[in-house]
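Translate structure to sequence.
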């Protein structure tokens, strides 16, 4: 049984050796001549203004997480819509409960002020 997994193990070890080898090889032969131009952040050819390490408000991350959560929950509605007629009344009631729970969560975060951007 283990002999069937031996080729996978060998391939895994070769991949790890290759990745480590490439990193070590690039470190050994790569040029190291830092200058202010090379060390400055670059984006779209615009010279940097201010510090590149600005702090974002925690609200930014909170809204991003809430977007992802509600977006993933909406994805669950697509398979339900595909087989809606076969599910009948039971499927409709189950999705109504699901949407109701989502609505309660949305109202809760709205009342808490999580969606207000200051």
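Result:
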């Amino acid at each position: 049984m283990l002999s069937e997994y031996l080729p996978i193990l060998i391939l895994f070890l070769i991949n790890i050796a290759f990745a480590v080898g490439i990193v070590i090889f690039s470190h050994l032969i790569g040029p190291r001549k830092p200058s202010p131009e090379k060390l400055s952040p670059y984006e779209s050819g615009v010279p940097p203004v201010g510090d590149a390490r600005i702090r974002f408000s925690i609200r930014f991350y909170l809204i991003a997480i809430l977007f992802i959560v509600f977006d993933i929950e909406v994805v669950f509605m697509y398979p339900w819509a595909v087989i809606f007629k076969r599910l009948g009344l039971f499927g409709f009631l189950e999705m109504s409960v699901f949407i109701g729970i989502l609505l309660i969560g949305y109202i809760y975060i709205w009342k808490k002020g999580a969606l207000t951007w200051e």
